Model the fold of this input.
Amino acid sequence: MSKKWFPKKAEKVTLRGSTRFDECLLEVIFYVLEQVLGETAAKFIVEYMIFKSLQEETRISFGEDAKTFSNALQGILGAGCMPIEKLIVEHLCTRLGVKFEEKTGYTFSDYIKELKKKSESTT
Done:
């Protein structure tokens, strides 16, 4: 996942064991953050969430448990993170060819878990 915005320090650690879904999710996250907040803020947030998650694990696993990302984003943006999380889910659905259906009581993590299952069943 050699992306110009991806932190070099984290690349070796996070790539180990990551799936295509994890990489797709991270690309969508950066794309949405860049569109909404600009490139500088998007880079800052992605780097922050990567290093925040690396404190807890040896690799990033947002596809397995998106709570880490959601908590990091909420820590930075407060309640403003909710529309951004929805945009991320909508763009991820589009990228995966899945129709987005808003569900009452679903969290960002719930959507990501469901999309990961759907993507694994099609590969």
Notes: The CA atoms of residues 86 and 102 lie 9 Å apart. Helices lie at 8-15, 20-37, 39-56, 67-77, 81-96, 108-122. The radius of gyration is 13 Å.
